[in-house]
Amino acid sequence: QVQLVESGGGLVQPGGSLRLSCAASGFTLDYYAIGWFRQAPGKEREGVSCISRVSAYTVYSDSVKGRFTISRDNTKNTGYLQMNSLKPEDTAVYYCAAIRTPGGCSVYAQYRYWGQGTQVTVSS
């Protein structure tokens, strides 16, 4: 069964950090770019970041650039999103997704596999 499972969300104070994980099962992430997306209540889904198959290429939205770091460990079939200096406006459900691609990545592509999401709440 093909599955992506996010973990690591929670409640954190402004300025704090969280590390999200995205574990794949039923397929190998080696051939897939990984994307992270978020959706806040009443807002459209936003592409946050993506990383190419071999970590050579990464993309960040302007809203998270310099604060978030995307990475992956293909030996663990897992992707990560390190989130630092969190702000209340980062509050959202965060989703990871995977798309098979020969190289590069884009948060505007049609990702094939999606996780169920993990809630991140930034509040004092």
Unreliable stretches covering 5 or more consecutive residues: none
Number of helices: 0
How many DSSP E strands?
11
Q: Sum up the overall morphology in one term.
A: globular
Strand content: over 45%
Gyration radius, to the nearest Å? 13 Å
Helix content: under 10%
Sheet with most strands: 7 strands, mixed
Order of helices and strands: EEEEEEEEEEE
Q: How confident is the prediction overall: mean pLDDT? A: 96
Features:
0% helix; four-stranded antiparallel sheet; seven-stranded mixed sheet; 11 strands; mainly beta; 124 residues; globular
Description:
Helices cover 0% and strands 49% of the residues. It has 124 residues and is mainly β. The strands form 2 sheets. Strands 2, 4, 5, 6, 9, 10 and 11 form a 7-stranded mixed β-sheet that branches. A 4-stranded antiparallel β-sheet has the order 1-3-8-7, with no helix packed on it. β4 (32-39) and β5 (46-51) form a beta hairpin.
